[in-house]
Design goal:
CATH class of the largest domain: Alpha Beta
Radius of gyration: 19 Å
Number of helices: 9
Distance between the termini: 32 Å
Number of strands: 12
Order of helices and strands: EHEHEHEEHEEEEEEHHEHHH
CATH topology of the largest domain: Spore Coat Polysaccharide Biosynthesis Protein SpsA, Chain A
Number of domains: 2
Helix content: 25-40%
């Protein structure tokens, strides 16, 4: 199996270097590691090239966003011979057995299009961030199993899930060719949700492997600039993209009008609940961007092509 790893880099050199080193220290090394740089200004790409000559680096002259960077890097690796693509956030550190477990289960389960790992918080190494995810059948909302819980070891058997985080996805190249990857205009946030919805309705299976582990510095690349306990860690832009993209994901993939209507109504209720909290703490900019995102997601669809060069 020729596994090509995609790491999208943007002004986060320390994260990317640490991630690369953990990949190289693994019991199974990837066939190739490709770092796609979205026009960073931190100078880290030069150091990465010098320190890791075996790592392929693409320095793009423009920031095309996370979604399209993954698309282009994956396409390049597949063109060069990769039969499996590992989408991995650059702010992660992988366990030495992480790839061998993911790849081994993908090889022995031909019915599976993707495998994914157990993900912990970097700052709390035994606290779970992802231990399987479900897209609920009616509301189509995401449900994460055991999020924020301490890992007590009881979650040990692989199981099918309907949602995998874009933080860690090991996909067959043939599946990417058939179903595509991310919608470029999503830029960032909910691109993984849209892909999993698409795979769900196509009857594809995702396998969660608890023995495959990694640690993720959650939201390290985009946090609110406000300070204070009540400010929260979700920026106005995250509110906009997350709301717009979630609606786009529903509208692109749910073709039953009744189910789509129900899902959008429940999503509206969820955003109303969030808005009450934003009103309470006077987060006016976040509130404005949330409802701008709702309007953008409801009143138009993502463009079929974008000028991302």
């Amino acid at each position: 199996m020729q596994v090509g790893v995609v790491l999208v880099h943007w002004n986060s050199g320390d994260f990317t270097r640490t991630c690369i080193q953990s990949l190289l220290d693994g019991s199974l090394r990837p066939w190739r590691i490709l770092v796609w740089d979205n026009n960073s200004e931190d100078g880290a790409i030069t150091e990465i090239r010098e320190r890791y000559p075996e790592v392929q680096v693409v320095a793009h002259p423009k920031n095309v966003g996370f979604a399209e960077a993954c698309n282009r890097a994956s396409a390049l690796l597949i063109q060069e011979g990769a039969d499996t693509i590992w989408l991995l956030n650059n702010d992660t550190v992988v366990d030495p057995q992480c790839l061998s477990e993911l790849a081994g289960h993908l090889e022995t389960h031909p019915e599976v299009c993707m495998t994914t790992a157990k993900i912990y918080f970097t700052d709390h190494p035994n606290r779970i961030w992802y231990a399987g995810g479900t897209i609920r059948p009616v509301s189509l909302r995401l449900s994460f199993q055991r999020m924020y819980e301490e890992d007590d070891g009881r979650d040990s058997l692989p199981r099918y899930v309907s949602f995998a985080s874009g933080c860690c996805m090991l996909l067959r190249a043939d599946g990417i060719k058939k179903f595509g990857l991310f919608v470029p205009s999503f830029i960032a946030y909910s691109e993984d949700y849209e892909l999993c919805l698409k795979l769900k309705y196509a009857g594809q299976k995702i396998l969660y492997i608890p023995s495959s582990k990694l640690w993720h510095k959650v939201s390290a690349s985009c946090k609110s600039s406000q300070i204070g306990v009540l400010a929260g860690t979700v920026s106005p832009l995250q509110h906009y993209w997350g709301t717009r993209n979630s609606l786009w994901a529903l509208r692109l993939n749910v073709h039953n009008p009744f189910l789509l209507c129900v899902a959008i109504c429940l999503f509206f209720a969820d955003r109303m609940y969030i808005s009450c909290g934003l009103l309470l703490f006077r987060r006016w900019e976040k509130l404005k961007m949330l409802w701008r995102g709702f309007a953008a997601g409801l009143l138009r669809l993502p463009p079929s092509n974008m000028d991302l060069e």
